[in-house]
Amino acid sequence: MGSLLVGGLVFVFLSMATSIGLVVRGRLPDHHLNAESKDVIRLATAVVGTLSALTLGLLIASAKSSYDNAEVEMRTAAARVLLLDRVMAQYGPETDKARQLMRELIERRLSRGWTAETTDETSGNAPGEYQDIEAVQTVLRSLLPRGSVQHSLQARALEVSGMMAEAHWLLVESGKEGLPWAFVTVLVCWLSLLFATFGLQAPANLTVLSILLVCALSVAGAIFLVSDMANPYVGLIRVSDAPLQFAIERLGKP
């Protein structure tokens, strides 16, 4: 589900909850909303409000952690690409085919995007990324090193390419985690309850309604940010592919 859609649905739910509270307020007898009743309502909503604030804080921290980890993964991937290219360059011209395959892999990765779905899918005659990495490793294994230096460089190249393959499968395994939707659903229910009680206690005038709508929009915006940051390779707030762009400019150089 898209982050904008999630934020929009949250705004709709909170607005509806406020409207229900306003409607119920107009139909309740006066003694249901006297000073003592309002005090009890405020105490109850304070508990729910505290739980909602803690839950939202945990979601924000989790989403920020996912975004930071993805940013580190992107830089690490770019560094490994450059390292592998330089190791193959030091080996000699026998690795030209592997270096070309590596360049095509990165170009395809940039054109498809950086998600578990796009990196593992095939497109026409283009294989999935894991097949590209395996093709590079096949070329490296077929090399016949002359001397200890080339043997060491071949071993190092296979080690780095193995780390790249491992990173790919880790992305595939964790790429669909996203937000804990059960957690988000409970949070939205709590927030809806809070906004319903706001409408229950609020006088129905334009100023109060405007403030409540702005608050609902602010909360929906926070949920949107959390949802968007929990999927760091897609959406409006995404990890920059600048490290890979930087790397591809330096691939293939002698």
Assembly state: single chain
N-end to C-end Cα span: 46 Å
Total number of β-strand segments?
A: 0
Strand content: under 5%
Helix content: over 70%
| Shape field | rod-shaped
Low-confidence stretches: 122-127
Q: What is the succession of H and E elements?
A: HHHHHHHHH
What Rg do the Cα atoms give? Answer: 27 Å
How large is the count of helical segments?
Answer: 9
- Round the mean pLDDT to the nearest integer and report it: 83
Category by helix and strand content: mainly alpha
Largest sheet: none
Task: Write a structural description.
The two termini are 46 Å apart. It is rod-shaped and about 95 Å long. The chain is mostly helical. The longest helix has 57 residues, at 35-91. The protein contains nine helices and no strands. Residues 122-127 have low confidence and may be disordered.
List the helices and strands and how they pair.
Layout: H1 3-27, H2 35-91, H3 96-112, H4 116-120, H5 129-141, H6 147-174, H7 181-201, H8 206-229, H9 242-248
Give a quick summary of the entry:
This protein has helices spanning 3-27, 35-91, 96-112, 116-120, 129-141, 147-174, 181-201, 206-229, 242-248. With 254 residues, it is an all-alpha fold.
Structure characteristics:
rod-shaped
